Amino acid sequence: MKRKVLIIYTGGTIGMEKDYATGSLVPFDFSNIFKRMPEMNLMECEVSVKSFDYPVDSSDMGPKQWQGIAKIVQENYEAFDGFVILHGTDTMSYTASALSFMLKNLGKPVVLTGSQLPIGDLRTDAKENLLTSLYYASLYENDEAVIQEVTLYFEYKLLRGNRSLKFSAEYFDAYQSPNYSILGQSGVHLNIDKDSLLKPKSTNFEIDLHLDENVLFWRIFPGMNFDFLLEVTSVKVIILQVFGSGTIFNNEKTERVLRELRQRKVEIIVISQCVSGGISFGKYSNSNIFSQVGAINGKDMTAEAAITKSMHLLNNPRYKTNFAELFDEDICGEVTKDFH
């Protein structure tokens, strides 16, 4: 039986072609992808295409577009065995992270991919990324999907979506998953690490479109004016990206600002500026203030996952537990449970 895979084209370099009159890249009609890539007709799965009415540059992607993608998956969930989302590379990890929280009890593969060069370019990476993503999205054993989570495929590697980050704007190998193992790797054989895959907690697939945008991300740096944090009065969650394993300036101003934020009922989440590793309160004395004010340990989460998880949990009527306890939970593989 041929598996059915739906390609959801949102925009991005993978769907661009050069306008020779201007020299700029412009979107092409993605419904013509089978003519541009005749090898797709040789796939062992049946492929359909659903495009955004207006392709979106990845820098314009946000909650509205994430919700639109989730709705398309929901509307087509019963008709298809897997989904490939074509997306611009700059914010693909944000979208993958957001969808991992919004698509509840996913029982089918969702694979995000894109490319560094347009699909018509002679040296493009688009064809391999797309073709292998289709293979992963149609991978079934004993009538059950092997992959049942939101993933990201790029340059021969399949990554957990909410563990991925873009680290290169230059190389084809543009994504890493520094704090979680690679889910699969494409070579002569299509390999997959089944022990690393996520399994749904229930078979009742549903979507939760809740996203609250009252979240601020702030990277601290030596010499910054910490009082600036108090000037943003409407924020409900501040994600502080701090030094190393959780250190920050050890002075009276830092303590005063953090305590005032907490008095305002602002949730403070602490993540690391380091790509690999995470936060360990108490390891150094300059991290003790976070425990004293009741900040939340973001452990080894990526910035993209911490941001989108905060947006999803903040004031979400679905959850009854308080925000801090909810954030500390591993919802869909975005954080290492026993990290310390």
From TrEMBL:
Keywords: Hydrolase
Keyword Hydrolase among UniProt keywords: yes
Gene Ontology BP, a term: amino acid metabolic process
Amino acids binding substrate: S58, T89, D90
Residue ranges constituting the L-asparaginase N-terminal domain according to the UniProt record: 4-194
Gene Ontology MF annotations: asparaginase activity
SMART domains: Asparaginase
Pfam families from the UniProt entry: Asparaginase (PF00710), Asparaginase_C (PF17763)
EC nos: 3.5.1.1
Occurrences of domain Asparaginase/glutaminase C-terminal (ranges): 215-327
Active site, UniProt feature: T13, T89
Record-linked InterPro entries: AsnA_fam (IPR006033), Asp/glu_Ase-like_sf (IPR036152), Asparaginase/glutaminase-like (IPR006034), Asparaginase/glutaminase_AS1 (IPR020827), Asparaginase/glutaminase_AS2 (IPR027475), Asparaginase_C (IPR040919), L-asparaginase_C (IPR027473), L-asparaginase_I (IPR041725)
NCBIfam families: asnASE_I
Similarity-based family: Belongs to the asparaginase 1 family.
Official protein name in the record: asparaginase
Lineage of origin: Bacteria, Pseudomonadati, Bacteroidota, Flavobacteriia, Flavobacteriales
